[in-house]
Specification:
By secondary structure, the chain is α/β, with parallel strands linked by helices. The protein is built from eleven helices and nine strands. Strands 1, 2, 3, 4, 5, 6, 7, 8 and 9 form a nine-stranded mixed β-sheet that branches. Strand 1 and strand 2 form a beta hairpin. It is globular and about 45 Å long. The chain starts with a strand and ends in a 7-residue tail after the last helix.
Length: 280
């Protein structure tokens, strides 16, 4: 699939799979569109899936050295223009949810529906010390002490952040394979820091009431390690008008890959309910 030079200043890599209602996937911090392929490609039998590498990730390169969430949302709007997609469904995982949220808040006429997957709206919606602006203390300490690759490996393979302990013990090979897949096109360290700065400087909580698109808040019931996404998801559900919340039993941050069938059913059911819908 091609790279395209967008007017927002990024040479963006993207892929389009399947036909039907367009569903744009926005990955978590520093991940490329490759992470969706093992688990979400089956949805291409019913939908037009759009995967992309956000600026600084994988095969995409940006002209600017400072990244913002709003900027990455504009990249998606420019990609939609390139693909002649007037409106689409959006699904964003973790930081990708913030990007999708920003797009929804600023371009309501381009969004048919929104899925906020294990995500949040900014520091104001975070509990405890995570509400302090800037990079979290625990993240900086762990990154310095472990080193970059070990930091990412630990998050995916050794901790309960992405996969539950029981799953990791029974499916070690699959978890290791997912790390290899993610790491191969993961953002490099300089870009990773730019992306983390963008993530922790975005604040969309005060504008949640302006979201008009039908919104599903999707989260694993055990997604409380590090950044508590259960708490952040409750804020989204309570403040986005008409938002619905679905909690996946026994799951953590990586439910896309631990229970892909259940996750895909939830995604497809939601999109089918809102086919042709458009926020106003």
């Amino acid at each position: 699939m091609p790279n395209v030079k967008l007017p927002t200043g990024v040479d963006l890599y993207y892929e389009s799979h399947g036909h039907g209602e367009a569903l744009i996937f926005v990955p978590s911090t520093a991940y490329s569109g490759e992470v969706w392929k093992p688990s979400q490609i089956p949805l291409a039998s019913s939908l037009n899936l759009i995967f992309h590498d956000p600026r600084g990730c994988g095969r995409s390169a940006a002209m600017q050295s400072v990244y913002t969430i709003e900027q990455m949302a504009l990249d998606i709007v420019a990609l939609m223009d390139h693909l002649k997609i007037s409106s689409a469904h959006l699904i964003g995982h973790s930081m990708g949810g913030r990007i999708a949220l920003s797009l929804t808040q600023n371009f309501p006429g381009r969004v048919k529906s929104l899925i906020m997957a294990a995500s949040g709206s900014g520091p104001a919606a975070r509990p405890g010390s995570d509400c302090i602006p800037g990079l979290p203390h625990r993240m900086v300490v762990d990154l310095v002490e472990m080193g970059f690759e070990k930091f990412i490996y630990d998050e995916i393979v050794e901790s309960d952040t992405f996969f539950t302990k029981d799953y990791r013990e029974k499916h070690r090979a699959e978890v290791e394979e997912f790390f290899r897949l993610a790491w191969a096109t993961h953002a490099k360290l300089p870009e990773f820091i730019y992306l983390c700065i963008a993530r922790h400087n975005f604040e969309g909580t005060h504008r949640l009431g302006d979201v008009k698109a039908p919104t599903l808040v999707l989260v694993g019931e055990a997604d409380t390690i590090g950044s508590n996404h259960i708490a952040q998801s409750r804020v989204l559900m309570e403040r986005i008008p008409g938002a619905e919340m679905k909690v996946l039993k026994g799951q953590s941050h990586g439910f896309f890959w631990q229970v892909p069938d259940a996750t895909n059913r939830a995604i497809l059911d939601w999109v089918n309910r809102h086919r042709g819908a458009l926020s106003t």
